[in-house]
Specification:
Elements lengths: L1 E3 L15 E3 L1 H10 L6 H22 L1
Parallel strand pairs: 1-2
Length: about 60
């Protein structure tokens, strides 16, 4: 699965084996329905990295 920003512009894909998730509703549904494979520590570290990335890019736009 590839997660894509709501504002992303997509090209064409032929015979793709990747499921694209465009938008948060689809992503949240996929996460909710998927079996848990990460422990809570790994989830916390991933969440922290995502937040850090968002802050970094928000600061770059200023």
């Amino acid at each position: 699965m590839a997660v894509v920003n709501d504002n992303a512009v997509m090209g064409s894909f032929r015979e793709s084996t990747v499921t694209l998730s465009i938008g948060t509703c689809y992503l949240l549904g996929a996460i909710r329905d998927a079996p848990a494979v990460l422990d809570s520590g790994a989830r916390d570290r991933i969440s922290a990295l995502i937040r850090r990335d968002h802050i970094f890019h928000a600061n770059r736009r200023r």
